[in-house]
Known about the structure:
Blueprint: E1 2-7, E2 23-27, E3 32-35, H1 42-50, E4 59-61, H2 67-70, H3 73-79, E5 84-87, H4 89-93, E6 96-98, E7 104-105, E8 118-120, E9 125-128, E10 131-134, E11 150-153, E12 159-161, E13 169-172, E14 175-177, H5 185-191, E15 198-202, H6 212-225, E16 230-234, H7 241-249, E17 253-255, E18 261-263, E19 282-285, H8 291-302, H9 304-310, H10 317-329, E20 340-345, E21 348-357, H11 361-375, E22 392-399, H12 408-423, E23 428-433, H13 437-445, E24 449-456, E25 459-465
The structure holds fe (ii) ion (2 copies).
Amino acid sequence: MKWTVLTDNRTNDPTLATEHGLSILLETDRHSILLDTGATDVFIQNARTLGVDLSKIDYVFISHGHSDHAGGLRHLMTVNDHAKVIVSPWALSGRFFSKRLSLHSITAEWPEIPAERLLAIDQSAEIADGLFVIANIPQIHPVPKGNRHLFVEDHLGECVHDDFRHELALYADGLLFTGCAHSGLENILSACPYPIKTVVGGFHLLDHHETKEELKDLAARLMEKYPDTTFYTSHCTGDQVFPTLHSVMADHLHAFSCGTQVDGEALKPTSLPTTPASDNVQIRAATRAQAAEIAQLIMMAMTDDCCLHFCGVGYGLKDFQKMMTALVEREDSQYSYRNTLVAMADKKVVGIAVSYDGGLLHELRQAFIQAAKTCIGKDHSGMDDETQAGELYLDSLAVWPAYRRKGIAQRLLRCTKEKADRMGLPCVGLLVDQGNPAGEALYASVGFRYANDSHWGGHPMRHLVL
Ligand SMILES: [Fe+2]
Ligand SMILES: [Fe+2]
């Protein structure tokens, strides 16, 4: 694996041009991926100087909608006629502004992207063999304070603080690319379910918003949580910030600049958690401290579309996620950590099963109904019943994609059945969408049987019991 910096704010090589922007070429043994495109065609000029052939790359990854990362895309289209463009639909549609120094647009001028070349990504996904995109990065840890100068136009045309739903991260062969890390470096690292050997990108800590103490605390947390990871940074991290971080991280932190080339050892696919040994996974009762991780998995089970459907006008996934995390932290909600079994692997929550006594639904749902009014602006008091008395109702079951096909969901289901036995409930019940035969096959594999037709959230469902 090799990566080469084609555009950055700085360089040590006088033959290369610089600009406020970032573009890096990542070459693995399977793919050649351009990570961001800088603001202009500077990356193309520098590629020529460095003898890099951009006509051969097969993917372009755009980390977010700002012009210093996406502005060069239209120039790339003139030298490459086939590379697929990985970008968030929010980046393509957003109008972005900065009030840093003075108010100005930082919306990229997008080229026409042929439909067959566009990979509009709004959910985390493996988009090619060994190439993973991380979307919907949860903001559990601090985000850069410099974000306060960054705005986006909302659906009413008002300039509002950017929540960075348009930001994606890319992972390949142990390398995690963070773009500008507007979502917060720790949040991006936490959202990556794969082992991280190298982090590359801007950290967006410029302009002295964070104090030296805050920066040192961040560096110390990174070293504690990721002691085997090496960080490479430049672009928007800030010249004054680097020495402060480096005073804590020492040789775990390096500065890159235009022309930097690093030959790195790729993490072998066998060390990826796409093949975790199932006996390394433990099923346990959840704790309150796992609320944010659990909420993320509940939302994955619900799908983004469904979560947005629950939101009132002007509310989005971040609001929904904040509400869900609070509901998991509570003891009296249906989503409470007390109703949740977690599958643990690599010190992380990789799967969940949320279940509760179906006869208590009305009582348990009050917390959601109240929270929805204040947090996502919608009254859900008229919602359909989804449970039946006399069963342990399985509300949500989810396993991160990288940990699937290892029997974890089946183990969560069997442990849920044991929980029903302990609670003295005769069966576990669940609803599966009539159009989800794969889901039904999973449930059938542990013994669930069809009981009757049902209906929920406007969908015809099948009620299964075990
Ligand atoms: Fe940015
Ligand atoms: Fe940037």
